[in-house]
Amino acid sequence: MDWKRLGKSGNVEDRRGIPGGGLAIGGGAGLILLIISLLFGGNPGDVLNQINGNSNQQQSKPQNDEAFQFGQAIISGTNEYWGKVFQKSGRTYHEPTLALFSGGTSTGCGNATSASGPFYCPNDQKIYIDPSFFNDLATRFGAKGDFAAAYVIAHEVGHHVQDELGIMDQVQASGDRQGANSASVKLELQADCFAGVWGNYLATMKDPIVTSSELNQGRTAAQSVGDDRLQEQSRGYANPETFTHGSSAQRDHWFSVGAKTGDANQCNTFE
Q1: Residues 215 and 126 grouped into a single domain
Q2: Would you say residue 271 lies in a domain?
Q3: Residue 27 belongs to what domain range?
Q4: Residues 172-218 pLDDT 10s
Q5: How many distinct structural domains can be found in the chain?
Q6: Is 167:187 a contact under the CB 8 Å cutoff?
Q7: How many whole angstroms from its chain centre is CA 38?
Q8: How many angstroms separate the CA atoms of 121 and 123, rounded?
Q9: Taking the complete model, does pTM exceed 0.85, yes or no?
Q10: Considering only Cβ atoms within 10 Å of each terminal Cβ, which end of the chain, N or C, has fewer?
Q11: In-domain check, residue 246
């Protein structure tokens, strides 16, 4: 995957190395240190200088590593594609933000840790990913390759597209007779399909950015994170009634529908 040709989006936050997503100077640990200094006769100025120094050091962290550049490229590529799709239908696409973090961070949907896995928060329209997940994807789940990682981001972007189209609100408002898990599965499978549609776009360009074999990396990634496979790995058996994202076969199917057709209108997982 020649992802460097996708450009660089400015909608990427680098929170890595900042505990809990960062602390304001006047709050949290900084305030505690300042109080301790006052109680024990220290120089508050020294404490403030130290806090400011740590903050500046975090903010000046170079944002030129491959994980950051990769995130910039994928968000740039998805923004370009969905922006065109929305424009053709007379809509305006509001671009999401990708937030990279390590360990844990605060979000519009509450606090999150690396164990949460990649997710989209509709409250702040941000996609949260700890880049270490990509290593897990390759080593633990056996889904290797740049497009496998790109699929993960594109899937979360798919949730943003659902948010923009009002699909999330419609699902929540209408309810689901088969239960919340069923509604969740349908949303996840549609996001898989949207990721496949974007993959088709990259693979069918005049000068393709993704080859057909690389596109299959997305299928492998979709299969690898199916609920049945994850449950079997963790507890030895799968319970379909507790699925929230869909089985490996379902995720493979819907990603493939998008990848083969390149048509988001074919991604109606709710029928």
Answers
A1: yes
A2: no
A3: 18-59
A4: 877 665 566 788 899 999 999 999 999 999 999 999 999 999 999 99
A5: 2
A6: yes
A7: 43
A8: 5
A9: no
A10: C
A11: yes
